[in-house]
Write a structure and sequence with these properties.
77% of the residues lie in helices and 0% in strands. The protein is an all-alpha fold. The termini are far apart.
Amino acid sequence: MAQADIIKEYLVNLGFQVDERGLKKFTNGIDAAGKNVLKLIAGIQGVALAITAGVTKFASGMEKMYFASQKGGASATNIKALHNAVQNLTGAGEEAEASLQALAQQLRDNPGTEGFLNAIGVQTRTASGELRDMADIMLDFGQAMKDRPYYLAMDYARDMGISEDTLRALIDPRIA
């Protein structure tokens, strides 16, 4: 009750007349307001946690895309476009990213791969001699496979590390 006495004294000093009923009503109002503030704080903390989780997930996705871009030799935009195209056609967007990285690794690890790709009509270098974006090379590989028998296209795709679902999407007429 020490708190009530302090409040009563404060209100009397301000010039208010305080009776026990008014004081109780005032204290109950302050208690209710305090509880509402605590509920508001809990709600804000929940929203802050949700925002933190969302930002963390977004940052993780960006980091993953950065490393996929570095490892796969393709721009993040082209990786995402390839992922979405294959996802829409076969539901295997992650496989497309893995296939892209496997193709890039095949080109890094096996010097004959570039010659093979050039022989089947896939240009791997720009006019200035730089390696083209890996997503573009992969799309061109799909174009080169469209006119070949499926068993042969699949054999070539396996040699390049390209999954069957990714190959199916690459040779689909809806991918230009």
